[in-house]
Every structure is written in C-alpha cells, then in structure tokens.
Design a protein that fits this description.
The complex is a heterodimer of chains A (about 250) and B (about 400).
Chain A: H1 3-28, E1 31-36, H2 41-54, E2 60-61, H3 72-78, H4 87-102, E3 111-116, H5 123-130, E4 135-138, H6 151-164, E5 170-174, H7 178-181, E6 192-197, E7 204-212, E8 215-220, E9 223-227, H8 232-251
Parallel strand pairs in A: 1-3, 1-4, 2-3, 4-5, 5-6, 6-7
Antiparallel strand pairs in A: 7-8, 8-9
Chain B: H1 3-7, H2 12-20, E1 27-28, H3 40-51, H4 65-76, E2 88-91, H5 93-105, E3 111-116, H6 121-128, E4 132-137, H7 148-154, E5 159-165, H8 177-190, E6 193-197, H9 207-212, E7 226-231, H10 232-235, E8 244-247, H11 250-264, H12 269-279, H13 283-305, E9 311-312, E10 321-322, E11 325-326, H14 337-348, E12 350-351, E13 353-354, E14 366-369, H15 374-392
Parallel strand pairs in B: 1-12, 3-4, 3-5, 5-6, 6-7
Antiparallel strand pairs in B: 2-8, 7-8, 9-11, 10-14, 13-14
Helix pairs in contact in B: 3-12, 4-12, 5-6, 5-11, 13-15
The chains are: A alpha/beta (about 250), B alpha/beta (about 400).
C-alpha cells in the first residue's frame, strides 16, 4: 500500500475514533485524569487507578496498555483494542468503539485515567482536542534519545496542557524535576496546583524512605506506606496516586 | 595471540553447522534456530520505527526507556519486581548478557560451577574472563535433575558463581522450586552469584508446568545473588535480531552495565523496537507456535521410539531439544559422540550435535533440535533411521 494512502487511511481512522470519543464523553460525562511526561506514565496511571479502586471508587477505567497517541488515546478511552492491523481489524475497532460510546451504566459516573503521550510538537494540542482532562499529572521532563521531541519541545507541550486547564481543575506536578515544577506558573490562578515528590515543600512529600529486598517503605503526611516494588518511579507513582485520589474525592 | 583469545573455542554446535554447510543436501537438526519467521506484528512495528526515523541513534546504554518500562511490567506479571531504571539491562542476546555478567563478577583464579550437560558456550564465556569452569553433573537417572549436594562438593574458596539453564538446554528439564531454592540458599550462605539463563522459559509444554514455573528471581531474599537472563531469540523467532535482557539487584546491574557499555554501547535500537513489539503480543498470538513445537516434539520422540535398540531418551518437558542416550554397543566402531556425529553427517548428511559438546555428562548422547520445520525433522529422522539400519551395525 502506498505510504500516502496509508497516511490518509490512518487520518480517517483517527478522525472517526475522535468522533466516537466525543459521543462517549457527551453520553457518559466521565471525570478524566490525564497522565503525561516522558517516562513513568504507565506506572502512574496504574497506581492512580489502583488507589481509586482501593478507596472504593466505582467505574474506574484505565486501559492496561500504554495507548497514548491520537489513535491510542481513543482506544484507551473507549477500552477497545485492534485484533489485527488490517482494514477489517480497524473496521471492527470502529464498530466496537461505537458500541462502547453508546453503552451506558446510568448508576455510575466513570473515572478515566489515561496517558497522554507527546513525541513531537503539536501532539498535546491534538490530544486535548480529543479529551479535555479535569486533572492533569506531569511525571517528568527528561532527555530521551528515541524521542522526536527535544526537551524544550516537551517543556512547551507540558506548558500548553497547564494553560489549557479550566478554573477549579487540578494540575499535579512532580516537584523533583525543576522543569516540571516551574510549569505551575503558567496555570491560571484558579487552577488547583498540587506538588508531589521527595522535595521539601511538596504537598505529598515522601519522608523516611527505606529500601530493601522487600521493596520501599516511606511516610507521607504522617502515614506510613510500603510498596513491594523497586525503583524511585514507583515511589513517585504512589505519591501522584495519593494526590490524584484526594483531588478526585474533593471534587466528587 | 592473547591467552584469552586462545582460551575460548568456537562452539561445537557452530562447528557442526559449518561442516554441514559443505554438503548442499545436508539437513541440520543441530543449532537451535526456530524455523518460523519473526511474527508480522513485530516486523510492522520495526518498519514504523524506521519510517519515523527512530532507529538511527544509540539508545541509552541499558536500553530504550519504553522497552525497559515494558520489561518491568512484563516481569511484574510473573512476580518478579525489578526497577527498569537501574536493574534491567537490554543486551545483545543472552550470550552477551552472560559474558558481561561474568566479566563483571569473576576473574582469573575464580571458579564458576557449570552444570553438565548444559549449553556449550557457558564454559567458553567463563574461560574468556580468565576464570575456570568446574562441571557439576546433573543426574540423568531422575531425568537430569539438579543435586545440591554435588554443588556443595564442587565448592572451593575460589568459587564465585553458578550458571544454570532453566529449562535446561539440551535436556529440556524444568527444575523444581525446591531444587532451585537449595541452590539459592547455597548462594546466600557462600556469597555466590547465580546466573539463571531462562531463554526457554516460554517453551513449557504442559499447563501444570506453566502454572508452577519458578524462578529464583521471584524471591526477594535472593535478589542480590541472582542475575536472570532472557532472550527474544527463541520465543519470538528472533535469533537474527540479537536482543535479550538481564535483570538483577541494582549494585550488580550497575557493574554489569559498565561492561555492557564497554562491549557494545547498547543493543541495536532497531532490535529493541522489535523486542518492544514482541512484549505487546498477546498470549493467543503465541499459542499456535507453542502448539506447533509440541507437535514437532512428539514427531521427534515418535521417531526415536521406533529405534529403541539404538536410543533411549527422557521426553523433554520444555525447550526444543531431545537428548537421547546412545546404545553405544549397537554402533559399530563407536568411540565418542563427536566421532559418531561426524560419521552421521558424512554418511547420511544429517547434522546433529554430539553430547560431549555439553560437557562430560553429555558424552554418549546426541542433541536433536526440533526447532526446524516438520519437513526437515521428518527427513532428518528418516536419515537417522537409515544410518542406524544401514551403517551402524
């Protein structure tokens, strides 16, 4: 198949999926928590979903895969997955997406936790055009050799997200990255800004962090926690999840 | 030539393949190469990455961030908890992972315990570091089991590491949790590193084995002593892509990373994209391959059953090899498995690997790979039968 035709078909699929997402959002009116940054998006998304479920929130939706592009985000929101990448496979995706958009459980207002991936300039605007988040989490801004976007482009894309938030919506920032922390200033004054990390002054600050073969133990605001996982990103993800879950409770 | 250059030899498996290449009509059931092509979803992902211009640059030394993140998640689903940032290193296949680990942890004067029969290249990798490989025999009677007492008896003050292949190549044995934990305790007690080569982990032929499969890397108390190694070569028909990975506790991982960086800078980025796509394959997409290998195993075992006076064997629970014992008295002028393998190649143009390649306990055996196509297996085993009935006695 010529590349130009492939590009055209891709654009058509992306457009139709976007329409289905709009239908889904109009019918379901879900709360949307967006997770973005260079790394750690999947871990944070999963931690937030787990924390919400642990706190008894019903209707939590988080696609297990890291779908986060102009096509991936709709798949994640509609919770559909291509069985193959053939024309038939995509037709099935569009059909399943339409069914998902129309189906509704009237008793529960859903909470969507989704990744917003940026690999080049303009991606954030595209993703915001698909689904506007009520809560946005920024995990980090670091150099990434395989990314098409430079750190400067990533920074601008993240600032775009912060500026797009409406009054009373929430921006959750990893304060351990100066670049991420500095994004707070571009948010509107009425946007709720929350910081997490090890850094002093964070709203959700990890203290007394201990690691051993069993995992990570730490304190947050005088309560103790243990993660049976290894890696600083899991600590960050846990802090982000506490912040997001508290914000969600306050909003609802 | 340097002492280390002289120490390592080309593996017997590769030698057999080179010999077989001289005969245009030869069938090879020697090297463990899957007959399948790399699955389409993997190739598609690689083409996409190439078209986007993502593969031309080096990745970070331990591997692409998104691949390591995906690996962490993949491992977590198997109850192994490792930090993608500091504890997972993407390597150029499993052999680079093994060699880099050995170069980072042992040196001249050290001893490394290697089971026999087991994968040919372990001993050569050990020799390359200047250390000495010390064989520890698996027990053929019980189905090639690990005997912790044999390991204890082989230990000296110079012993620094153990290399274990699970499931084992060439015997297809899956070691039990109890057997492995005995070695884990030994490693704790004596401060040893265990290299767990688990490249055949996806080739388990019954459901019970898949459910009960145990790796020492699942138990937190062994974290500081276990380096687990995996390759995409076998499970995803990607031998030519040369990509694998290792994971271990941070202090060892960081030492290995320095060696890895020195040796290769990073694994090929194009292959890392292939690995990422492989991790995203659904189990249902992999099942037809496993089912096909099961059919091939049964085909191979069935053919050997028809030659009971020449071969006896333990049916492999895993991997894609059968390792039959030779009834040596039935083979005219039999001296060694190596001589026999050469004779089989010359007479009927069938390449097999002599058991002696896998250490002393492998003598008087042959390794037959059923990774090749059914047609090749069928033809190869017909030739083996011809050899037995026409030339052997």
């Amino acid at each position: 198949m010529p590349r130009s035709l492939k590009t055209l078909l891709r654009a058509i699929v992306a457009f139709l999926l976007k329409l289905e997402v709009k239908l889904y959002l109009w019918r379901h009116q879900p709360s949307i928590i967006a997770v973005t940054g260079v790394t750690g998006k999947t871990a944070v998304k999963r931690a937030i979903a787990e924390e919400l479920v642990a706190r008894g929130v019903r209707g939590v939706r988080a696609h297990p895969k890291c779908y986060n592009t102009d096509i991936g985000l709709p798949l994640a929101i509609l919770m559909v997955e291509p069985s193959s990448f053939s024309a038939g496979g995509w037709l099935k995706v569009l059909r399943d997406g339409f069914v998902a958009a129309c189906k509704r459980d009237n008793n529960v207002r859903e909470v969507l936790v989704a990744e917003y991936g940026v690999s080049t300039k303009g991606d954030m605007l595209t993703l915001l055009g698909i689904a506007h988040p009520h809560v946005a989490v920024i995990t980090d801004i670091v150099d990434h050799p395989q990314s098409q976007a430079t750190t400067a482009v990533m920074y601008e894309e993240m600032r775009l997200l912060a500026r797009a938030l409406e009054p009373q919506e929430t921006l959750i920032l990893n304060a351990d990255f100066e670049a991420v922390k500095s994004i707070a200033v571009v948010a509107r004054p009425s946007v709720n800004v929350v910081f997490y990390g090890r850094s002093e002054g964070s709203t959700y600050q990890a203290r007394d962090v201990q690691t051993d073969n069993e995992g990570i133990s730490f304190m947050v605001n005088s309560s103790s926690h243990h993660l049976a996982r290894h890696g600083e990103h899991h600590l960050s993800a846990a802090l982000a999840s506490f912040a997001a879950a508290d914000v969600y409770h306050a909003l609802s | 030539m340097s002492v280390r250059g002289q120490a390592a030899e080309l593996s017997v498996i590769k030698k057999m393949e080179l010999l077989a290449a001289k005969y245009p009509s030869a069938i090879s059931l020697a090297q463990g190469i899957p007959s399948f092509d790399t699955p389409d979803p993997i190739k598609r992902r690689v083409i996409e990455a190439m078209e986007k211009g993502l593969v031309a640059k080096y990745s970070l030394a331990p591997g692409m961030l998104e691949l390591r993140e995906a690996l962490e998640e993949h491992l977590e689903a198997q109850n192994m908890f490792y930090d993608f940032e500091t504890e997972i290193v993407v390597t150029v296949g499993s052999i680079e992972a093994i060699t880099a680990t050995l170069l980072a942890t042992v040196g001249p004067g050290d001893e490394v315990l290697v089971t026999t029969p087991s994968y040919v290249s372990y001993t050569e990798s050990v020799r390359l570091t200047g250390a000495t490989p010390v064989y520890v025999a698996l027990q053929e009677d019980g189905g090639w089991r690990v005997n912790a007492r044999a390991f204890t008896e082989a230990l000296t003050d110079n012993t620094k590491a153990i290399i274990l292949c699970n499931p084992n190549n060439p015997t297809g044995t899956i070691f039990t949790k109890k057997e492995l934990e005995e070695l884990g305790e030994l490693a704790l007690e004596r401060g040893l590193i265990i290299l767990m080569d688990e490249v055949y982990r996806d080739f388990l032929y019954n459901e019970k084995d898949r459910k009960e499969y145990y790796s020492l890397a699942m138990t937190p108390r062994y974290r500081d002593h276990v380096v687990r190694i995996f390759s995409f070569s076998k499970a995803f028909a990607m031998t030519g892509w040369r990509v694998g990975y290792l994971h271990t506790a941070r202090p060892i991982a960081q030492r290995i990373l320095k060696v890895h960086d020195t040796l290769v800078t990073c694994a090929p980025v194009i292959s890392q994209y292939a690995a990422l796509a492989a991790l995203e394959m659904k189990p249902s997409e992999w099942k037809p391959y496993r089912d096909e290998y099961l059919q091939r195993r049964d085909l191979t075992c069935h053919a050997l059953q028809a030659l009971p006076e020449y071969f006896s064997y333990v049916q492999p629970s895993a991997s894609y090899f059968v390792f039959p014992r030779l009834a040596s008295k039935r083979f005219k002028n039999y001296t060694t498995s190596h001589e026999l393998a050469i004779d089989i190649l010359e007479k009927v143009k069938l390449a097999l690997v002599p058991g002696s390649a896998f250490g002393p306990s492998g003598e008087d055996h042959l390794r037959i790979s059923f990774g090749r196509s059914r047609e090749d297996i069928q033809e190869g085993l017909t030739r083996l039968s011809t050899y037995c009935t026409t030339y052997a006695s």
